[in-house]
């Protein structure tokens, strides 16, 4: 076993309050495209930039175009949890892992069996009417024709954080609380260049910060264990 994997396993085994903070690199192992990599969603050619389409203003002003894009590019219902999701769910069941904090909206941590998942950017699995706030499943949205409408006539909105929208305050505060309590924090599959999510690392006061990512991050110098590899390779090794 590689020396860094041995160190990772040792720190997990010795942890009393382990917290995991993950980004797009967790989901790409299931085949879900990310946003910002070379071949990511934001680097593909569209008549309108995805960042504009996925904004609060655009959603309200052009819901038809928004949903054409959303249904085509954001539907992850057919994707399945990978070894990372499953390993984290097992660590939680054993009492070792206290929380999963994720920037992903695909709901795969929940599908894998994790119970305490803090979804910073929301989830495609939750949808609600803008008028009466009635709840709708993801299949109601993705299988709808045109703009999904509520029985009351209102437009249904995915419970995901769009550009121009703040993160949910309760979720953010919970994430901060868990990171402050963590003795070991594993940060994986994220470039740590998007705020306010990246700023959460500033709340960590524990003994071991572990970064796992294919590329370097701005926080590498602050971590005591850095692994530059795909998450699939790492999580399949212990």
Task: Provide a compact summary of the structure.
The chain has ten helices and nine strands. The protein has helices spanning 3-14, 24-28, 50-53, 56-61, 63-73, 83-93, 108-112, 138-142, 169-181, 231-235; strands spanning 18-22, 97-102, 117-119, 122-129, 135-136, 156-160, 184-188, 208-212, 225-227.
The CATH topology of the largest domain turns out to be Rossmann fold
The share of residues in extended strands comes to: 15-25%
Q: How confident is the prediction overall: mean pLDDT?
A: 93
Q: What is the 3D form?
A: elongated
Total number of strands: 9
- CATH class category name of the largest domain: Alpha Beta
Give the H and E element order. HEHHHHHEHEEEHEHEEEH
What is the radius of gyration computed over CA atoms, rounded to a whole number of angstroms? 18 Å
Q: What is the total domain count?
A: 2
Distance between the termini: 9 Å
* CATH homologous superfamily assignment of the largest domain: TPP-binding domain
Number of helices, where a helix is a run of at least 4 consecutive DSSP H or I residues: 10
For the biggest sheet, the summary is: 6 strands, parallel
